[in-house]
Amino acid sequence: MSSSLEKNMLILRSSDGEEFIVPEVVAVMSKAIKNMVEDECASNTIPVPNVDANILAMVIEFCKKHDESEAEAASDLKTFDSEFVNRGQEALYDLITAANFRDVKELLDALCQNVAEMIKGKSVHHIRIQFLGYQLFEILTSNFIWNIWCDRDFD
Amino acid sequence: MDTADSLTTVDHGGGGGTTISAVHPDILQTHILTRLDGPTLASAASTSSQLRALSSQDHLWRYICNDKWPSTAHPRVRRLISSFPSAHRSFISDSFPSLDHRHPLRRSPPNRRHTSPPPSQLFSAVDLHYQTKPVLSKALATETITGLMLGADFRIDLLDPKETVPMPVNLDFRDDTCESDLEENLTLSWIVIDPVRNRAANFSSFRPVSVDRNWLTGDIELRYVTVLPGDRRGEVLQCCAIVTCGGREGGGLHVREVSLQVEDMEGKNLGWEESLVILLEAVEGGKRRIGKRGGEKEGYEMCLKMKKERSERKKRRQKRLEVASIATAVTIFVAFWVFVVIRILQFLHLV
């Protein structure tokens, strides 16, 4: 496909300068990289701005697993996915941003599904504390004020 | 909520960067919010102004609506819903919660009710589910004018007399467990839409409140009752959605009848005129229950209790009347004899 002499290996450089050598088949799981390779505008080093080494390593791990296990059982992949997305929120959001930016559909789907599962069934206060960084005292005070407001007689 | 929103602008030192706003709004909207269910989307929308703005897109609510009630995907119903104040969101907030039976136990007095003419058509969106499997989804427009003219009993029939719908599960009709199984798993939603005022309400109790077997035909009759306030204090009306299931020759079940009617406490069907007024009042002003489901049966039981109390009161009154009349009779009888005896004594004395 590519005229690259690297025996189908590509080098990805993260935003903080670290380089990762990955097989082309793995790299092209990202649509953005695939387009670059197909257009042959990629030299053997592809810069991946906005994504730092940590996150890039995770994305590559995910892509590798998905590429390898194409022949494997789907249930195996599912358990891997569920373990993979089971991370702290910060990493999760960074991964989502990276997956969206690099256009890795499977990863984005798995991550968003996970976030949606996390939100599902939670109350307003719970969501505020967990996802919007509210502190408990804020919830309590706002709740207090809101209750006083609601207890007024409107008629 | 405004008080809370102003607080979001404060930078939270401890958890900086871990808020969901780190995710690009487009991703939030197209990938995360679309995966939420109705109640969660509603609570997510009330957490912050950003999420509220993102979740105000109608298509998010339309997915939820069509997923929960497939009958709302009918083009006619969809057109009706699109004229609601905020389209599908208003529709869901109107029809998702059940009507609260505890709230006013009395209707507003007749002189304070506004008396606009009833709409010429009443729309119903009905969905019957066995667990999560759809059994029947149908949107129906009912002409009100013929019923009003004829003065007939109010009854909306969903199925044609000869039409039946097979149940997606294999249940033995003659089995006794069949009834409890249906009671557990068969859920109904009957949404009545007022096309004039653009409001809707769900008149089904979601799960059946009573299951009876017809002694003659052996059909199973499931009643989904919503309790509505009556005219006088302590009087209630029932809006009954009735599902009748019958057996099939080859085994298995099918749904024979699905209907809606309004009954008073004695179980008498109210006429079209009164029923329409009551239904539309409930659609417009009925309090929706806040919180989780599960109080519907309690409402029905309260209704039954009231009915029992009422009949007991009646019986007591009758008994009292009986005692009084007996007492009167005895008094008259005694008085008569006393009178007679006195006359005889007087007579004897005189002699």
Automatic annotation (TrEMBL), chain A:
Organism domain of life: Eukaryota
This protein's name: SKP1-like protein 4
Taxonomic source organism: Camellia lanceoleosa
Lineage of the organism: Eukaryota, Viridiplantae, Streptophyta, Embryophyta, Tracheophyta
UniProtKB/TrEMBL annotation, chain B:
Native species: Camellia lanceoleosa
Protein's recorded name: F-box protein
Highest rank taxon of the organism: Eukaryota
